[in-house]
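Please decode residue identities from the backbone states below.
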């Protein structure tokens, strides 16, 4: 009986932490492998918030700091600019992707190699002003985008 109560208590703790993390669903988090000496890299993923929220920043141990960026065409030239935040409307998937919104690792401490797992802590703010941290691990890929696996 005591064993069953311990298991139920642990299940409750796991459920509580999952509910906290489930405020923002993260799909396909990735970054490109970098060349030696490269000091910046982009991070990409799809974020879907359970309530109206805003991505306001983040950090990673692989870089000196992390910024939120957008890329857009300006007079026929692709221009990258830092943004203060990225709105995450309730239930709407927001794509952080090459050529659009993304996170930017600034001041890489070492090259990112294909296969590396890159830890990131994202900061999101709810409509009530309360901030939460969201731990995400990005997969470093030799090429960009979703990779397809074929079985033969």
């Amino acid at each position: 009986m005591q064993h069953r109560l311990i298991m139920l208590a642990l299940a409750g703790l796991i459920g509580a932490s999952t509910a906290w993390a489930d405020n923002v669903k993260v799909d396909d988090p990735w970054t490109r492998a970098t060349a030696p000496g490269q000091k910046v890299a982009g991070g990409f993923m799809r974020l879907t918030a359970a309530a109206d929220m805003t991505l306001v920043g983040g950090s990673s141990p692989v870089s000196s700091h992390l910024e939120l960026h957008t890329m857009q065409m300006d007079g026929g030239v692709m221009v990258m600019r830092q943004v203060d935040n990225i709105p995450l409307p309730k239930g709407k998937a927001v794509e952080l992707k090459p050529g659009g919104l993304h996170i930017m690792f600034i001041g890489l401490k070492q090259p990112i190699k294909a296969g590396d797992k890159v830890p990131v802590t994202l900061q999101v703010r709810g409509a009530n002003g309360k901030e939460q941290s969201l731990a995400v691990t990005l997969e470093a890929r030799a090429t960009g985008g979703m990779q397809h696996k074929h079985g033969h």
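Observation: Residues 2-21 form the longest helix (20 residues).
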